Amino acid sequence: MEKTWRWFGKKDKITLAMLKQIGVEGIVTALHDVPLGEVWTREKIRDLREYIESYGMRWSVVESLPVTETIKYGGKDREQQIEVYKESLANLGKEGIHCVCYNFMPVLDWARTDLLHANPNGSSNLYFNWAEFAYFDIYILKRKGAEADWKKFQEEHKQWNRDILAEVAEIKAKATPQYDHDLVDTIVIKTQGFVSGNFKEGDDKPVELFRELLALYDGVTKEDLQNNMKTWLEAIMPICDEYDIDMCVHPDDPPFQILGLPRIVTCDADVEKFLNAVPNPHNGLTFCAGSLSAGGHNNIVEMAKKYHSRTHFVHLRSCHIFDNGDFTEASHLGGRADLIELARIFEQEELHRMETRQKATQLLPMRVDHGMTMLGDEDKGYNAGYSFLGRMFALGQVQGIIATVDRELGKPYHQPGFFD
Questions:
Q1: What pLDDT digit, counting tens, does each position of 375-385 carry?
Q2: Is the confidence at residue 176, as pLDDT, over 90?
Q3: Can 179 be counted among the known catalytic residues?
Q4: Which is the catalytic residue, given 282, 308, 312, 315?
Q5: Can you give the pTM of this predicted structure?
Q6: Does the annotation mark 315 as catalytic?
Q7: Is 157 a catalytic site residue?
Q8: Maximum distance among all alpha carbons in the chain?
């Protein structure tokens, strides 16, 4: 697989010169300076592509060309926003960029409740606590029906053997204004504000904005959202066919129904449904092993065996689920995802594509994701979940896995940057 790295543009504190030294081959990025819902011009795309290429790497994947909320919930300006998306997509194709990772999660992208949760070895990782998230929903958002939803959620997950609402009450009794502020900063700003999305650093009233966005989905069912995704995909497939662009949806993170919102990429049945709804081979999956492994209902290896041929991009990370359902990012050699077996599946798929001349000039792009914060990463101002040393450590682990698997398969393994 092609070793790629998510990079946040020319202002990223992690530079392309640093990435070249550690063996990164492809860059995963976006035009983060273009406001949500505006066209990505060829000029802006070309400028960033050429900048990346000047460091000997290529712009491998767009992550992401954001899908606006109106497309998701079916607003009055949906058709206009679909046309904007199609124009941006065509401009990417004209500039030789052929893979777009996106998500169809309403309002909130990935969510965590602790961005620097201590590990036993002194490093830290992202962490998700269900009671803290329920407290945010019930007492900070004050969402109508939230408490009833959490009672139902608790009943559906009896195996966790916990009283989430009782834990929420304990949090409420001890919570301070600073605690509430920090939780909003974690859930809403620090995990969302560094991408071209609904929230950004410096928003004065993020909770009020959150409520406004939630209100857009009043009455929108899971079936409605699935149909809206199908409508959008069918509209853009002609552009994808013309320019050979692979669209690959990112699974919902965490892979559960939350905040009263429909979530439609949480499990095997969800993936099967959207792939079958639009059977065009350009409609595919970002196989994020981390997001999927945060749900105990998902068998990650079996899903990879089932969907490898429709996978256009791979995120190799892994989650550990505690007995009470809370989860944390695991070592890239541990957790539920079994990255060693996933590497075998996707390296075999890549070999098949090369042998059958399917996209023979491209490797299957892979990036490590959500590495530990370690050895001073926490003081560098990196985006949450996107440390340098932690991800470099993870990349070293994954490179070793891939090199070993390639030897098993008789594939040549090449580490760029030493004698080229």
A1: 999 999 898 88
A2: yes
A3: no
A4: 315
A5: 0.94
A6: yes
A7: no
A8: 62
